[in-house]
Amino acid sequence: MAMSLLAGMPLLALALHQWQQLDGFDHTRSHEVNEQVAALLHGEQLVAPPPLPPELFTTREVEQAIPFVHQASRQWELLDEDFRQRMLLAFKLMREQHGIEMVLLEGYRSPERQAQLAAMGPQVTQAGAFESYHQYGLAADCAFMINGRIVVSEANPQAARAYDLLGGIAKSLGLTWGGDWRSLKDLGHVELSRPGVLRTRTAGAAPASSQAH
């Protein structure tokens, strides 16, 4: 098992080095994935949590973060399998290590929905159809369950701390965290970048945030 993990690490590093630069953040820098996390990723297949009641997502705070939130997909099975396992592990580590319950706000996004959001203007998204990793099941927007409600805004001190913890865990799992972007920081956005996946991209364009991506 140890030998297979060691053999797999150079491939992961190579993939990370091939990431393209987005939003002024250097994605060519690979993130260190510790051996314990690598072992977890090669271990049990984690199962998605049961869906939350829809009414939890109809608050003003959530609707401001996710336009047309009633159209947002929170179906874990529509996410890329590798990305899904990494995200489920992030949820598990946040809960077990820090006592923080995470919530999936939006995962897969159809090109039609992406185009709809893009039509709302650059304050919502700068990514058109097929220009977002959401269309390929490789991105997710997340928040936290605090005192029985979904909290998105980092103005909440508990959420602000949780976003920082999420960033560290996401990067340890080889994921890109939107909080590292130099502009349009997106604290709740996590993605698994893969070279050549995006069909089109405007040269030099910044990726949008969870409120805009």
Explain this structure.
The chain has 213 residues and is α+β, with helices and mostly antiparallel strands. It has one domain (2-191): 2-Layer Sandwich (Muramoyl-pentapeptide Carboxypeptidase, domain 2), CATH 3.30.1380.10. It is 33% helix and 10% strand. It contains 6 helices and 5 strands. Strands 1, 2, 3, 4 and 5 form a 5-stranded antiparallel sheet that branches. Helix 4 packs across helix 6. The longest helix has 18 residues, at 81-98. It is globular, with a radius of gyration of 16 Å. Mean pLDDT is 81; it is low at 1-30 and 201-212.
Number of helices: 6
What is the total number of structural domains? 1
Helix proportion range: 25-40%
CATH architecture: 2-Layer Sandwich
CATH class: Alpha Beta
CATH topology: Muramoyl-pentapeptide Carboxypeptidase, domain 2
* Helix-strand sequence: HHHHEHEEHEE
Whole-number mean pLDDT: 81
Structural class: alpha+beta
Rg over C-alpha atoms, rounded to the nearest angstrom: 16 Å
The first-to-last residue Cα distance is 38 Å
